[in-house]
Hints:
The chain is mostly helical. The protein is built from 5 helices and 2 strands, in the order H-H-H-H-E-E-H. The chain has helices at 7-11, 14-25, 30-34, 42-54, 73-109; strands at residues 58-63, 66-71. Strands 1-2 form a two-stranded antiparallel ribbon. It is elongated.
Amino acid sequence: xxxxxxxxxxxxxxxxxxxxxxxxxxxxxxxxxxxxxxxxxxxxxxxxxxxxxxxxxxxxxxxxxxxxxxxxxxxxxxxxxxxxxxxxxxxxxxxxxxxxxxxxxxxxxx
Length: 110
């Protein structure tokens, strides 16, 4: 039985989040990605890339002998959709706090 990771498990690791940031700007080969992580071995970075690809956060494209990975923004929508209600909740709370602070400042000036 093959274990299928979900997108939230994939983005839980800071190295994988960094990889997503790198490939968000341009498609990169595994070697180019690994160069950004001087302290990690290529095998470690390859394992992170594999996990991201399993979750469909990375799309793989073959160009001749080279393999390039690029961000799959549609899969990130899963994360954005999950976070959206929380963002709205915090926006509402900050707006209420701002209103309270304005009222407090106007009373303080009186």
